[in-house]
Amino acid sequence: MWTAASVLVLLCVLPLTTAQTCNNANPCQFTGGDAYVKTAEVASSNGVLIQTLTVDISDVTIEWLTTQRRTYNGGFPGPTFRLKAGDNLNLKLVNNLGPQPAGVHNQFRDPNTTNLHTHGLHISPQEPQDYVLLEVGPGETYDYNFQLNANQQAGTFWYHAHHHGSTFFQVASGLAGLLIVEDEVSSMSAELAAISCPHNCDKEVPMLLGKFLDYNGEDETFASVQTDIGDPFTVDNTVTTSAGVTLLSYLTDQQTGVSAYMVNGQVRPVVTMQPGEIRRFRMVNAGLSGMLLLTITDCEITILAYDGVYVDTPYSQDFIFIPTGGRCDAAVRCSTAGTYEIRSGDDSAHKPSIGNTDIYGGVIATIEVTGSAVSMNFPTTTPAKPFYLRDLQTVPDSAIGGRYVVELGPTSYINREKFTNATYYRYNFDVDTIQEWIFSNTEQADGHPLHMHVTHFQVISYNTYNGPTTVQDAGDGDDGAFAYYDLNGNMCDQQHNYFDATAINAGPITVDTTYFGHDTNDRNLAGYARIGEFRDVLLIPPLASVKARFRATEFHHVDRGFGGDAYVKTTEVASSNGVLIQTLTVDISDVTIEWLTTQRRTYNGGFPGPTFRLKAGDNLNLKLVNNLGPQPAGVHNQFRDPNTTNLHTHGLHISPEEPQDYVLLEVGPGETYDYNFQLNANQQAGTFWYHAHHHGSTFFQVASGLAGLLIVEDEVSSMSAELAAISCPHNCDKEVPMLLGKFIDYNGEDETFASVQTDIGDPFTVDNTDTTSAGVTLLSYLTDQQTGVSAYMVNGQVRPVVTMQPDEIRRFRMVNAGLSDMLLLTITGCEITILAYDGVYVDTPYSQDFIFIPTGGRCDAAVRCSTAGTYEIRSGDDSAHKPSIGNTDVYGGVIATIDVTGSAVSMNFPTTTPAKPFYLRDLQTVPDSAIGGRYVVELGPTSYINREKFTNATYYRYNFDVDTIQEWIFSNTEQADGHPLHMHVTHFQVISYNTYNGPTTVQDAGDGDDGAFAYYDLNGNMCDQQHKDFDATTINAGPITVDTTYLGHDTNDRNLAGYARVGEFRDVLLIPPLASVKVRFKATDYTGPYVLHCHILNHEDEGMMMVTYCSPSGQATQSPCESSGGHKPGTCSSTDAYPDILQNSVNGYLTSVGEGRIEVTYWHRMAAAQTLATVPQSTSVEKLLE
C-alpha cells in the first residue's frame, strides 16, 4: 500500500516538476503531447467580415520557451478566418513595427515591412485586394477589401505576409493564418456534410503546419535569418543554461537544438478520435522550405481536395504529400483504439518523383483513438467545381489562347532572371482565354514548388524532358557564374541576361540524370499530382516538364467582357414560427461586377437584395432604413428623387394600405419606415419579388439593384411527389431561383442605367477619369456601342453557369426584374415544362419550347437536359412570335448556360399542381349577372394610361366594391409597341383576346407636350372622344395612315409567346399593339388603392400609372369613375359602347353623353353596339330595360 501510494504521488508530481524546471534558463527537449487546439476562429456574418490585424512584437511561449516574435494581434499563429463565396473581407492591416536597417534587393531584408497575401483564393491581384507587391512600412496602415468571388471554390486556404525579402522571416515568425471558405450545405453529400462545417464543425481538424520552431538545420533557419535580416529580437544570448551554454547555443546546437513542424502553434499535439470516426483534416503546409510526406500507419486516408479544390472523386491513399504552400483536405479514420502518429519523412520509393528536395522528417501530431466505436462512411462524391475550374484536358488546340514556359533553376532564378520589380511583366496574356503553360525545372537533383497567384491551374501531363540543365551550385550570388547545358553536357547557345563566359565551365560537363524520366515514372508516386487535378502549388521535380492549363478569367484591367462564373443563389433568409423580422438599409455601396467596381444604391450592401422565403399566413416585419443623403428637386412624371424610396411586394395578395403594400408611400432621405406585411392565410405559394417603387425613381432604383426575390413555399402535403422532388423545403438544391435584371446597363438606344443616372442627378457615376489601355475613359468604354455592356444579370452575376446531371430535373424560378425588356427564352436541346406564371400554378403542367416573361413577370419552369454538354439559356426576338409581341423590346443575348455533366439520373416531370386558393377560382363561366363591375384600362400613347398621366395618390380613376367579380378590358392603342400591364393586390384571369375596334395613336405621340397627340379610328379618322389635354391646334386632323400589321389578336395562333393561355392567371400581362383583352378577378379580402401601371419602368416613372380604389361593400357607387375630361378611354366615338359602371346592367352599358342625359347602348358579345335611345338621366334602370 505504501509503495503504491508513493508511486501514485510520483506520477502526479513529475509533470509539474518538469514544467517548473524547464524554462529559458533551464532548457530541455520539447515534449509535445498537449491536446490539439484550433486557433481562434472568426466568421463572416451577412456576407461581411471586418477585422484588424495588428503586426507587432509580442512575447510568445512555446511550452517552456519564451521568445519574441512578430505576430498578428499577439497570436501565434494568426486567427482563422471562415468565409463564404461572395463575402467581403474588410481587413485593416496595422504595422506597429519600428524602424529597420536598409536592405539589399533579392536578399533577406526589411524585417519590419509587410503586406498580406490570401493564398489560393480566386481573387483580384490589384489594390485594395491581393496585391502582394504592396509595401506597408513601419508605422503604416492599409485597408484591404478582399471581395471573394461569388463562385469562389469552397476549400482550405491561408493568408500570410508576402513582402519580397522578408516573406521567409515573417512567415517563420508566425505571420500566417488559416482561411477557410465553407461549402453551402446543399452542395455537399450527406457523408461530406457529416464531417464539415457549418453543421459538424467538431469533425473538422484545421491544421496550420509550420516550421515556426526552427533553430537548427543545415540550410536557412528562423534563427539564421534573424541574423541575416538584422532582427534584434533574437533569443536572449546572455541567459546561460544549467549546462553552461547560452540559450541560443542550446537551441541551435545540432544535438540539443530544435527544428520542429508545429500545428497551430503547438508541438506534436494529440487529436482525439473514436474508433471508426471520420474527421476532416484541413492541412496547410505553411512551412518554409520542407515538403511534407505524411503517413498515418494503420489508419485510412481518403483524399478530398488539394489546394482548396475538390478532386473529382475522393480516393484512398496511404500518404499525403503537401509541398510548401500547398494544402490537402483528407478524411481520416482509425478503426482500432490506440495511438497513431502523423509522421513526415523521406521515402526512397517516392524519391524518383521528388529528387533531393527537402522532406521534413519527424512526428507532426498524434491521434489518440479511444472510446466507443462509431459508424461513419467516407464521402464518395464532391461538390461541383465552379466554371473557372472546369475541365480543360480535352479542349482542342484551336481553343488555346496563349502558351508560355516557366523555367525554374538554378535556385533563385526563374525564367533565367531574379525578380526585378513590380511592373516588369515577363508575359502578357488576354483575359477570358485558356492558357497552356509548361513548367520546367533545370536542376538535376532538387525540385521547386511553384505557386501561382489569382487562379489554379490544371495538370495536363508530365512530358519528356528535353530542356537544358544547370549545375547544382550555380547562381550562388555571382549572377554571371552559371550556364545552361544540354543533357549531354554541352553548353547551350541560349543562356541568360547575366551570362559571363569567362566565369563558367565551357563544358562538356557531367549531367546527373538520376531523376530523369517523369513522363514514364509511376504516376502514383508522391511528388506527382494526378493528371486532371487542380493546384496552385505544384512540385516541379528535377529535370521535369509539366504541362498545365488554366482559364484566365475574372481579374484584370477593364478591356474585357463579362460572364461564365458558376451560378450562385442570393443570400436567403426564411421565416420561423410564422415571422420574419428583417431590416433593409438603403445606402450607397461599392458593388463589384467581375472586374468593374461601381457605386450603387443597395439593400444591406448586397447586389441584389436577399431572398425572403415565407409561408402563407406569415408576418414579414421589415424595417426600411433610408441612409441616402439629400437630393435635387425633381419634376413630377419625370425621373426624379433618386434618394426617396419605398417597397412593393410584387405579386402578393396583400393589403395595399399602410403599413403593408402601400406603394404611394414616400420614405425620404434619412427616414425609416416599419412595414408589417401580413401574408394572407390563403396566399398562393409561388415566386414573387420585392423592389423599390417610388414614382419617378422606380426605374433608377431597380436598375441600381434595389430588388430581391420573395418566395412563398408550398406545404409539402399539397405537392405531388414529382413537384416536391424539385422544390423546397426538402429539395432546395433542385431549385434555381433567378432574379433576372438588366442591372449592368450602360449602352443602348433607349434609357439605360447610365443615362438615367445623368437625368436624375445621381453623383455616383462610374469614374470618368480612369483611362483604359485603349486610351478612353472607363465611362466612354462602358457606354460605347461597340465595347459597352448592357447585359441581363442573374442574381447579380453575368451569364452564370448552372451545373446539372444528365436527365436531372430542376425547378427554375425566374423573375424578369428587367427595366424595359421582355424575355423570350429558349434552351435548345433541353425540355421545358411550365409549372406556373406570376406565382400562380397552371392547372396542368405543359411542355413548351420557350418561356416568355414580360418585365415584372415570373415563370416557374421544370427543365431537363438529357445529354452531357453545354446549353444556353438564351433570349431573343423571334419572327414567328412577332404577331403577338409587335415591336416590343425583347432582350437578345445569353442569360445563363447549363453545364450538364456527371452520371445520368432518373426523374419525372410533375403532371399535377396544387389546388388554387378561393380568390383564384375559375371565373371563365360565371354568368353576366354575377359580374359586379366592368371597366376599361387603355394604354397608349407611351406614358399615358386612360388618356392621362399619373396625377396623385388619391386621384382614383375607378371605384369598385370589395367581394365583387370584376370584368375589365385591357386595350392598347399603340400600333407597334406592346405594354406589360401590372396590377397590384391581386391576380386577374385571362378570359379572351377580342376583336379590336378601339382607337389608335401615332407612334411619336405624347413626347412631352401633353396636348400634342390625338386618337384616330382604324381608318385614320380623328375620334371625337379625345383626352383632357387635347389641343386641336397642335395635331394632325387626319385622316392618317394606320399601320394594322399587328391587328388580329383575336384570330392569331393562341400558342404565340406574347399571349397568355386563356384561363391562366397573371399580375403582369403584355397587352400587344392594337389589342383588347378581357380579364376577370375577384376583388376579395382587401380594400384600398389598387395601382395599375406599365411595367416598362421608365414608362411608369414618366406617368403611365393610375390608381383605382376598392371600397367597402356598397360604397363604390359614390364615386365610381373618372374619365379624361369627359372622354371615355377605349372609345373613339361618343356612340361607342362603354361599361355602365354605376348600374352594371346585364343587357346594356350606360354612357354619359351630356349633362342631364344618358345614352342607352345595347351590347351583346355576338352583335355590334347599337344606340337605342337617349333619355333623361333621372330615368330608372327598370324603365330603361323596358
Indicate the topology.
Layout: H1 2-21, E1 41-43, E2 48-62, E3 65-72, E4 80-83, E5 88-95, E6 117-119, E7 141-147, E8 155-160, H2 167-173, E9 176-181, H3 190-193, E10 204-214, H4 222-229, H5 247-252, E11 259-263, E12 266-267, E13 270-273, E14 278-285, E15 292-295, E16 300-306, E17 309-316, E18 320-322, E19 327-333, E20 338-344, H6 351-354, E21 362-369, E22 400-408, E23 433-441, E24 448-451, E25 457-463, E26 534-535, E27 537-540, E28 544-552, E29 572-574, E30 579-593, E31 596-603, E32 611-614, E33 619-626, E34 648-650, E35 672-678, E36 686-691, H7 698-704, E37 707-712, H8 721-724, E38 735-745, H9 753-760, H10 778-783, E39 790-794, E40 797-798, E41 801-804, E42 809-816, E43 823-826, E44 831-837, E45 840-847, E46 851-853, E47 858-864, E48 869-875, H11 882-885, E49 893-900, E50 931-939, E51 956-961, E52 964-972, E53 979-983, E54 988-994, E55 1065-1066, E56 1068-1071, E57 1075-1083, E58 1088-1094, H12 1097-1101, E59 1105-1111, E60 1148-1154, E61 1157-1164, E62 1167-1176, H13 1181-1185
Parallel strand pairs: 1-4, 2-5, 4-9, 10-14, 13-21, 22-23, 29-32, 30-33, 32-37, 38-42, 41-49, 50-52, 51-59
Antiparallel strand pairs: 2-3, 5-7, 6-8, 8-9, 10-11, 11-12, 14-19, 15-18, 15-20, 16-17, 16-19, 20-21, 23-28, 24-27, 25-26, 25-28, 30-31, 33-35, 34-36, 36-37, 38-39, 39-40, 42-47, 43-46, 43-48, 44-45, 44-47, 48-49, 52-57, 53-56, 53-58, 54-55, 54-57, 58-59, 60-61, 61-62
Helix pairs in contact: 2-4, 7-9
Signal peptide: 1-19
Protein name: ferroxidase
Pfam family, one: Cu-oxidase
